[in-house]
């Protein structure tokens, strides 16, 4: 039976049948009151309180019994596990792809565990999270990196709540403000800039611009495109894999979000591909699937190195892309990677009236809402649509509006 035990006094029976309180051998030593109760797992638990804190002990006992009835009881010992220990368990149980696992492990090891790793889960307070983000900011880390790091911490602590380790996630405290990427509107390159970059690349790699700007492929998808993925007769590209770096090794993997898709192949891009394949025939390249040591997959790559090997993104960017940017008079930055070709592709489609839903499918976005939020400023305004609609109905005449 749950109760509050007074360790300094005990009740004894006298010879006359009455009882009296007498000091125990522990009188004046250690904490006086000990709450003893049975946890939901059937084991006895206890918590001690100092002298003059009997009311606090009784309140704790009432709280424990209430939590047990509500099913919200948290074992105080569960929160003693350190953040490092729990984060390692959490990471080992995740099912995301290996490149994501590698990036998450590196982020935890470099910047999160050094600060939170030694703290018990139950001891992590909102102030620690505020201080963590401030520390990352002072290291000069990009806000995008801080956003992902904070998301990792919040996700781990959410899991700790679900596992009954802690009662609540301190990331959700009102005083904790997660880092946010300042709103930035995408400014697409002009057609002239895209063509200038294309001209700045060696002939064997110009098709990368055609695929990025003309079909909206990601860089990894461009570098993993195989000739068997191209249906020239139907005018369709099958995007079924990407080239990734996992553990410093090149591997084939499903596209981002593990989502394959079909993309319309414009005749101009089809002609460029045909010309490219005539000058630089595809070569069979075998790589592991998903992880180093995975089953080998062989495809006939459209884009490949001079020695008939797969072209990794680091080599492509360093040796060719950055040079092409300079040739086009564009400064190298995070915003001017090959991903900018996808922005150009989106701007062209939206300008011609393509729907956001279709664009989202062609880009391989998981949610059309993300596509809309990213490119809404590139869409014709409602005022423009209104003007065009009215002008289409009312043809101008010398007298003003035409009459029916």
UniProtKB/TrEMBL annotation:
GO biological process terms, semicolon-separated: DNA integration; DNA recombination
Keywords noted in UniProt: DNA integration, DNA recombination, DNA-binding
Domain Core-binding (CB): 81-161
UniProt GO molecular function: DNA binding
Keyword DNA-binding part of the UniProt annotation: yes
Family: Belongs to the 'phage' integrase family.
PANTHER family: PHAGE INTEGRASE-RELATED, PROPHAGE INTEGRASE INTD-RELATED
Protein name according to UniProt: Site-specific integrase
Lineage: Bacteria, Bacillati, Actinomycetota, Actinomycetes, Micromonosporales
């Amino acid at each position: 039976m749950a109760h509050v035990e007074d360790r300094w006094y005990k009740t004894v029976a006298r010879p006359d049948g009455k009882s009296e309180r007498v000091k125990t051998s522990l009188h004046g030593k250690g904490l006086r009151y000990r709450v003893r109760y049975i946890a939901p797992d059937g084991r006895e638990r206890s918590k001690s309180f100092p002298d003059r804190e009997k009311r606090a002990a009784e309140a704790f006992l009432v709280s424990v019994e209430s939590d047990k009835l509500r099913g919200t009881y948290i074992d105080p010992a569960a929160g003693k596990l350190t953040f490092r220990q729990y984060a390692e368990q959490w990471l080992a149980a995740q099912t995301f792809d290996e490149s994501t696992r590698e990036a998450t492990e590196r982020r935890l090891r470099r910047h999160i565990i050094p600060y939170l790793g030694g703290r018990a889960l139950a001891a992590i307070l909102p102030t620690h999270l505020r201080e963590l983000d401030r520390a990352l900011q002072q290291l000069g880390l990009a806000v995008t990196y801080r956003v992902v790091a904070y998301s990792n911490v919040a996700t781990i602590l959410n899991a700790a709540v679900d596992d009954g380790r802690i009662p609540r996630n301190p990331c959700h405290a009102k005083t904790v403000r997660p880092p946010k990427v300042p709103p930035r509107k995408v400014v697409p390159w002009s057609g002239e800039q895209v063509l200038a970059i294309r001209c700045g690349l060696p002939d064997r790699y110009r098709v990368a611009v055609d695929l990025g700007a003309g079909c909206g492929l990601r860089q990894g998808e461009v570098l993993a495109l195989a000739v068997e993925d191209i249906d020239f007769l139907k005018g369709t590209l099958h995007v079924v894999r990407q080239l990734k770096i996992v553990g410093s090794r090149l591997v084939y993997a499903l596209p981002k979000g593990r989502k394959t898709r079909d993309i319309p192949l414009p005749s101009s891009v089809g002609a460029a591909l045909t010309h490219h394949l005539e000058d630089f025939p595809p070569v069979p390249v075998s790589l592991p699937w998903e992880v180093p040591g995975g089953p080998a997959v062989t495809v006939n790559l459209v884009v490949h190195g001079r020695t008939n090997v797969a072209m990794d993104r680091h080599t492509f960017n360093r040796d060719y892309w950055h040079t092409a940017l300079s040739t086009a008079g564009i400064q190298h930055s995070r915003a001017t990677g090959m991903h900018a070709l996808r922005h150009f592709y989106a701007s062209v489609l939206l300008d011609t009236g393509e729907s956001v839903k279709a664009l989202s499918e062609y880009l391989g976005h998981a949610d059309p809402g993300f596509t809309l939020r990213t490119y809404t400023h590139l869409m014709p305004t409602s005022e423009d649509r209104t003007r065009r609609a009215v002008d289409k109905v009312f043809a101008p005449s010398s007298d003003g509006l035409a009459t029916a």
